[in-house]
Design a protein that fits this description.
single chain, mainly beta, ten-stranded mixed beta sheet, five-stranded antiparallel beta sheet, globular, disordered N terminus
Length: 285
Amino acid sequence: MPATPPNPPRRGDVARVLVVVATVLAGVGLLGSCTGERPTLAAASAAPSTSTTVVATSAPAATDPTTPTTEQSAPASLGPDSLLGYIATPTGRPVVHAEASDGSASIDVPATTSAGAPTTFAVIGDPTGETTGWYRVLLPTRPNGATGWVPASSVAITKTPFRVFVALGARELRVERDGTEVLRAPVAVGTSENPTPVGASYVTELIDNQEPQGAYGPYAFGLALHSDTLTEFAGGPGQVGIHGTNQPGLIGQAVSHGCVRLRNADIEALVGVGLPLGAPVFVTG
């Protein structure tokens, strides 16, 4: 089993480690854990800031700001052979279509997530040989596995060597870098009533929690994955995430509303790996 990275990030260093926008989930210590009433991981509203940290000051409206205004593609069957680590980051407001054509229906995807992180997409397949001028991408919206098409001219393409695998039956999370395991840790998962959804996903945001000893632990990764049984968590869109916990004794059990829980030392180690927004995450039964 690989050892935990020797130098987990200090809390003030998290933005430099991930080179992403981190947010603070306001009031998390006053809420129940993910076995009780709680908000979505993306339920914090972002206030403008010139720093790399956006502090949430209030809860959002009950409407889901990431819900597309047009019908999306039917959910795709995606896996490690489909999501190879290529990431599409919009250079302006996201331009997404139902088909690889300007004349097809557009899909409304905001420029930032509800938590204030810049919107990213996981690219399906290898875009390096693309000649049509369009990339097919996995969307961060419902339904799980929904896809769309973005003009190549509207995004910047990068590639991450990292991929995350969550095995629900084994209650285990592991991270690979270029196919080599760099982290493995036990997890808690959703109950039989509210199971953790399976399928291909990706990291949409990192939340730097205001109360690191609270229900979410010090950090929470939001995923492009939503509960199949709950349409919302306290007004949010029912987003699933990977986060720490203040109940480490429950790790290894099926106790959450669908999120994947790690011991706080392990979520800090996961942050220390340096996952970028758009890093693929695969959840299997």
